[in-house]
Design a protein that fits this description.
There is one protein chain. It is elongated and about 50 Å long. The N and C termini lie far apart (43 Å). The protein folds into two domains: 76 residues, Orthogonal Bundle (Arc Repressor Mutant, subunit A); 82 residues, ADP-ribosylation fold (Alpha-Beta Barrel). Helix 1 packs across helix 3. Helix content is 32%, strand content 21%. The protein binds ligand HQG. Ligand HQG binds next to strand 5, helix 4 and strand 6. The site of ligand HQG has 18 residues, from strand 5, helix 4 and strand 6.
Length: 182
C-alpha cells in the first residue's frame, strides 16, 4: 500500500463519512456509524475499489486519528469534522485547559473580528491544544495565523466545550471577546 493510496483513500473516507454519504448511497446513523461492507459496495459502484485491509490501514495510519472502527469490526465512523445533517454525534463535554488555539488564514481575520469564530459548514468550530497543530490547520487556507482562545473563561461563563475521541476540541461559536492575540 503506497502512502499516496492511503492518503487518497483517507480523503475519500472523510468525504463520505463527514460530508456526502449519499454520494455512494451510504446510510450513517446519528452517531456517524456506517456499515463497512455497505461502504465498500457503494464505493465499488462509484468505481472505487476498497477492501477491509486498505480501510484498516487508513484508520491505523491516520496522523489525526480521524476514524474509528467499532469493536465488532463491522462499522466505521469519522470521529469529528462532520457537515452532514444526518449525523449529530454526542461528544463528551469537558472542562478545557485555560487556553486553546485555532489556526486560520490572515484573509479571514477581519471577518473573525466582526463575528468571532463560526462553524461554517461544519457542526463545530475546531480548536487544538497546541500552536503547531493550529498552524498546520491555518496553512490550508493561506498565510496562517494562530488565534489564542480563553477557553476556560468561556466554559466558566456557560459555553459548552467538547473533546472528540481524537482530542480535537469542539464548540459551537467563539465570540470575539474570548480571542486574545488577534
Ligand atoms: C474560518 C482539519 C471568516 C476558520 C483540521 C477556518 C481541523 C471564519 C474556516 C478541521 C470565521 C473553516 C477543521 C469568520 C471561522 N469569518 N472565516 N467569522 N470563523 N472562520 O475547514 O477549523 O484534516 O471548516 O478559521 O485539522 O480550518 O480534515 O475548519 O479557516 O481539525 O481531519 O473558516 O479540519 O482536519 O474551515 O478545520 P474548516 P478548520 P482534517
Amino acid at each position: 500500500m503506497s502512502s499516496k493510496q492511503l492518503n487518497e483513500t483517507s480523503k475519500f473516507l472523510s468525504y463520505v463519512l463527514r460530508h456526502e454519504p449519499q454520494a455512494i448511497g451510504l446510510q450513517l446513523d446519528s452517531e456517524g456509524w456506517a456499515d463497512i461492507d455497505s461502504m465498500i459496495a457503494g464505493a465499488a459502484k462509484d468505481g472505487r475499489i476498497l477492501d477491509t485491509a486498505l480501510i484498516q490501514a487508513v484508520v491505523s495510519s491516520s496522523d489525526k486519528k480521524r476514524f474509528s472502527i467499532s469493536d465488532d469490526g463491522q462499522r466505521i465512523r469519522a470521529v469529528q469534522g462532520h457537515s452532514t445533517s444526518s449525523v449529530s454525534l454526542q461528544h463528551i463535554e469537558k472542562e478545557p485547559p485555560e487556553f486553546l488555539y485555532h489556526g486560520t488564514a490572515t484573509r479571514f481575520l477581519a471577518s473573525i473580528r466582526q463575528q468571532g469564530l463560526i462553524a461554517g459548514s461544519r457542526h463545530h468550530v475546531h480548536l487544538s491544544q497546541d500552536r503547531s497543530t493550529a498552524i498546520a490547520v491555518g496553512q490550508r487556507y493561506g498565510k496562517p495565523v494562530v488565534l489564542k482562545i480563553e477557553a476556560l473563561r468561556m466554559y466558566q461563563q456557560g459555553f459548552k466545550l467538547f473533546q472528540a475521541e481524537n482530542e480535537v476540541w469542539l464548540t459551537s461559536h467563539v465570540p470575539e471577546k474570548f480571542l486574545c492575540e488577534i
